[in-house]
Write a structure and sequence with these properties.
Elements lengths: L1 H29 L11 H25 L8 H29 L5 H28 L41
């Protein structure tokens, strides 16, 4: 339980940094180039761009701090899995924003922020934490191939070649000795 609470606290700090990045970029874009008065899909585009940047920030924080004990050696696989889960979280946030802005007609900047950065973020965060912990950074996950980037001081060993017992001309292969 202590490990879970520690991970959740670190996840919250990393998420807080990601939130600030997302919130800042979202609003910068929403109030400038993606203003809904200029571009109809502006809020959605601003949300996608801001979330992608925040995902990159969160990847580094979660890999090297939150789940550092459980990160795998397979950087590419873990990165793809992190991206898939993060995309799911992005879609949850986009869904909340789309429902609020387009289906319900709450099209003010405040409503866009509440639907995206409060409701969507809360639902997406629960989804991401569960899947990061249970899938991407699952403890004791097997590592079938060598690391893409071995840790400092680690050498990448060649695969072991099984020893083959030589056969002698006086004894056919497979016969008991």
């Amino acid at each position: 339980m202590r490990t879970l609470l520690g991970q959740f606290a670190r996840f919250g700090v990393v998420g807080g940094v990601g939130f600030l990045v997302n919130f800042g970029i979202f609003n910068l874009l929403l109030f400038t180039v993606f203003d809904s008065k200029k571009i109809h899909e502006g809020p959605l585009l601003a949300n996608v761009i801001a979330t992608i940047v925040a995902i990159a920030v969160n990847w580094v924080g979660n890999r090297y701090w939150t789940f550092r004990e459980h990160r795998g050696q397979q950087l590419l696989r873990e990165g793809v899995e992190f991206g898939v889960v993060s995309l799911g979280g992005l879609l949850i946030g986009l869904g909340c924003l789309w429902i609020s802005h387009y289906a319900l007609g709450f099209d003010s900047k405040l409503a866009d922020n509440i639907s995206s950065n409060v409701v969507g973020l809360a639902l997406g965060t629960a989804f991401r934490f569960a899947l990061y912990r249970l899938w991407v950074f699952r403890p004791h996950r097997g590592e079938p191939a060598p690391a893409v980037f071995p840790a400092a001081g680690e050498s990448v060993a060649a695969p072991a070649i099984p020893a083959v017992e030589p056969t002698s001309p006086s004894r056919p292969s497979g016969s008991p000795s």
